[in-house]
Amino acid sequence: MRPDQPPEPAPAGSGIQVPLTPGIHLSTGDSIAVAVRRDDIDLIDIASPNNTHAEIAIAAAKAGKMVMCEKPLSMDGPQGETMVSAIEKAKVPNMVWYNYRRVPAVTLAKQLIDEGRLGRIFHYRAKFLQDWTISKDLPPR
């Protein structure tokens, strides 16, 4: 598919395509077996339950699709190694997503470090706070 062409509609009931920007479309709802066979899908973004990451990543790699996987990559080390082997064998672009990577505070910290404005960093300590963890419905730790 060329960037200036809209994609062919997905088969009825197979998913939803929403134009985001010219040449970029979102497809949801396909089974992995269908998604990896579609010519209009170049990248498989894995944001599913953790125990499904390996199956999806390996299928995507074998189909020659780029693989982006939300953390954790796998359920354990050996499974992660199997995933990495499949990716390396297929030679497809890949990345493990860290969903807070583009948070403004993190982006600013990286910018300050890259610019050398903080000097040489020897050690850092950080705390990550989320308000969703402050719920009376969650059990106490």
Kindly describe this structure.
The chain is α/β, with parallel strands linked by helices. The protein has helices at 32-35, 53-62, 77-90, 104-114; strands at 16-21, 24-28, 43-46, 66-70, 94-97. Helix 3 links the parallel strand 4 (66-70) and strand 5 (94-97). Helix 2 packs parallel to helix 3 (77-90). Mean pLDDT is 79; it is low at 1-20.
Top keywords for this entry?
three-stranded parallel β-sheet, Rossmann fold, disordered N terminus, 5 strands, alpha/beta, single chain, 17% strand, extended, 141 residues
Give the SSE layout.
Elements: E1 16-21, E2 24-28, H1 32-35, E3 43-46, H2 53-62, E4 66-70, H3 77-90, E5 94-97, H4 104-114
Helix pairs in contact: 2-3
Total strands: the figure is 5
Point out poorly predicted stretches: 1-20
Shape: extended
CATH fold naming of the domain at 42-133: Rossmann fold
Largest sheet, spatial ordering of strands: 3-4-5
Radius of gyration: 19 Å
Tally of alpha and pi helices = 4
Task: Estimate what percentage of residues fall within beta strands.
Answer: 15-25%
Biggest sheet, open or closed, and with what strands and sense? 3 strands, parallel
**Element string (H = helix, E = strand):** EEHEHEHEH
- Broad structural category: alpha/beta
Oligomer designation: single chain
